[in-house]
Every structure is written in C-alpha cells, then in structure tokens.
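Researcher: Re-running this chain for the archive, since the previous output was lost when a drive failed. Same request as before.
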Amino acid sequence: MTTTPAARAAATLPFDALSADCPSRSVVDRLTSRWGVLVLAALRRGRVMRFSELRRTVEGVSEKMLAQTLQGLEREGLVHREARPVVPPHVEYTLTPPGEEAAVLVIGLVAWAEANTEAIVQARASYDGRRTA
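Model: Regenerated structure tokens:
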C-alpha cells in the first residue's frame, strides 16, 4: 500500500485534530469556517487588500464578522495585518507563507464546490422532495 507524503508526515506528527483538546483543531475550525475559507480565497489572489476591499469582495460578510475572521486568521499566523500611520487609518491584509499554503488547500475546496454545484442542487431538491412527501 502506497501512502502520500502528506499521510506519512501526518502519521509522525504529535497532533491529532480529531482530539477535542488538540491545538490543531482550532486551526481546522478557523480554516473551514464560512468566512475563513472565503477570506483566504480572496486574499489568495496575490495582492494586498484593505478591509473595505475585502468586504466588497467577500459579499454578504458583515463588518463585525470580517473583523473577527481577520483577527482569528491573524492570531493563527495565516494573515498579516499592516496598519499604516495615516489619517484615516490605512490597514492592509496579506497572506503569510503558511496562509498561502492554507489558501491553496481551501481554494481546492471552493473549486470542488463550484464544479459540483449542479449535482449538489439536484441532490438537495431530491432530498427536499422526499422530506415533504
């Protein structure tokens, strides 16, 4: 049986995200949150983005949720926040190297969702039809 390099590396790590008290779980939670995935995908476009630009790009996110998401991603070391000392405040966000790696992974998830949306919509309709019948 052949294993991938990622599987071999995971087998040797002292962390297990399936364990409730493992610190890696909070990283997984942050990465896979609704807004975390979308913010990483937006920042992955490879440029510096200001808060207002991120808010326009990630449609539907409130200011409060975007601020909380960015703070969480910054805390995990995935996003870098640069505050410029000007009036009004000028704050820019970019991905850190680990954030770039994580963004590549979540973009794969986003791409999969987009590619499979038609089948998913059909499955939902079928499921909902059975539930109401």
